[in-house]
Write a structure and sequence with these properties.
The structure is a single chain. The chain is of the alpha/beta class. It has helices at residues 2-15, 33-42, 71-83, 85-88, 102-131, 168-174, 177-197, 226-233, 237-243, and strands at 48-54, 65-69, 143-145, 157-164, 217-219, 256-258. The strands form two sheets. Strands 1-4-2-3 form a four-stranded mixed sheet. It has a two-stranded antiparallel sheet with strand order 5-6. α3 (71-83) packs across α5 (102-131). The protein is elongated and about 70 Å long.
Length: 266
């Protein structure tokens, strides 16, 4: 049932100009939880949507739910990435973490992951709004939990529980192609709504060279402190020090500082 919904969603995405679907599986076989988002990352996916059908004791629970990663889940995923600094390099714009101490590496990963979590909640909100047009929702807000499948640190990711198969009425409805298409259409509209509100960053290969992006530089003014500059751009002061190879003091006036993008450039 959920694979049928995913296939319908893939058809809609394929028909939309500028969008391309990637099915993690296209048959009745198992793909490991961590392998799922790693496959999405290899293809530089802009969003990751995991489609499920819920089940609970009893027969009365009904409606759709949308989940994003919890803070606790994010912290555990961050710890794993930090433990493998070399493989974490591409998460922050290609900057190698191999020769950096844990504190600085954690700051840079944190910048990237916090933005991803914000975008995941935005994606979840957008999908939930559209699913309410399809049928009842079980939870009226995006819930958060430590689902392993959502732990990609650089792709906005949500898990959609389409209906309760423990509810005989919902299970019967979920087996119908018409309802499967309605759910797929709702998820698709939610994805489009999110992408309009939060345009995805271009892939690294398509991004402009640093010298063509003067907006990502800051010229230090007389008397300006590094802490004030960090607050101005809503970034961590230690990330600013690291990216510009600065000591503990404030830089002199006239120095040009590189400013990390919202996705954590290098």
């Amino acid at each position: 049932m959920t694979l049928a919904i995913a296939r319908e969603l893939a058809k809609l995405v394929a028909q939309e100009p500028g969008m391309r679907p990637l099915l993690i599986r296209d048959g009745d076989y198992y793909v490991g939880l961590l392998q799922r988002f790693e496959k999405a990352r290899r293809q530089r996916a802009d969003v990751f949507v995991s489609i499920h059908a819920d089940a609970v004791p009893g027969r009365s629970a009904n409606g759709s739910s949308v989940y994003a990663l919890s803070e606790k889940g994010a912290s555990s995923a961050m710890a794993r990435r930090l433990a493998d600094k070399e493989n974490a390099a591409d998460l922050i714009g290609g900057v190698s973490l191999n020769d950096k101490d844990d504190m600085l590496a954690h700051v840079l990963l944190d910048l990237s992951h916090n933005k991803t979590m914000q975008d995941s909640l935005s994606l979840g909100d957008s999908i939930l709004v559209e699913l309410q047009r399809v049928g009842p929702v079980h939870l009226r807000h995006v819930a958060q939990a430590g689902f392993a499948v959502l732990k990609s640190p650089d792709i906005p990711s949500v898990l959609v529980e389409t209906a309760f198969i423990s509810n005989p009425t919902e299970e019967k409805k979920l087996r119908t192609p018409a309802f499967q298409r309605q759910l797929a259409a709702g998820i698709f509209r939610g994805i489009k709504r999110h992408l309009v509100r939060t345009p995805a960053a271009p892939p690294m290969s398509a991004q402009a060279e640093p010298e063509t992006e003067p907006a990502r530089e800051h010229v230090v003014r007389k008397g300006e402190t590094l802490a004030a500059i960090a607050r101005q751009y809503n970034i961590h002061v230690d990330a600013l020090r690291f990216l510009n190879d600065l000591g503990r003091g404030n830089p002199p006036a006239g120095v040009r500082l590189r400013i990390p993008s919202r996705h954590g450039d290098g």
